[in-house]
Amino acid sequence: MSRAPKVDHNLCKGHGICYDVCPADPKVYEIKGDPPRAWVVNPEACIECESCVANCPEGAIELVDIEEAGPRPES
Fold first, then answer.
1. Under 8 Å between Cβ of 45 and 27
2. CATH 3.40.225.10: does it fit domain 3-68?
3. Which positions ≥6 away from 71 have C-beta within 8 Å?
4. How many CB atoms neighbour CB 44 within 10 A?
5. Which residues pair with 3 in a beta bridge?
6. pLDDT tens digits, residue range 28-74?
7. What is the pTM for the complete model shown?
8. For residues 42 and 11, what is the distance between their CA atoms, to the nearest angstrom?
9. Cβ contact 34:64 at 8 Å
């Protein structure tokens, strides 16, 4: 089963490191909002490299089953 990131918005500070280190194309993340947070916009693009998990200074990201990935931005 495919995995993708789940971001804990209680921990995420919106540094954008997850976006910067993500090698997927298209990017899995967008950084947006006020305060800024990482949003999972393309979970299906995740290649499960775990670069985002390893580089998040807040420890806010884990890889989960793709159905549980998120949060996704509201329309």
1. yes
2. no
3. 6, 7, 9, 39, 40
4. 11
5. 65
6. 999 999 999 999 999 999 999 999 999 999 999 999 999 999 998 87
7. 0.92
8. 21
9. no
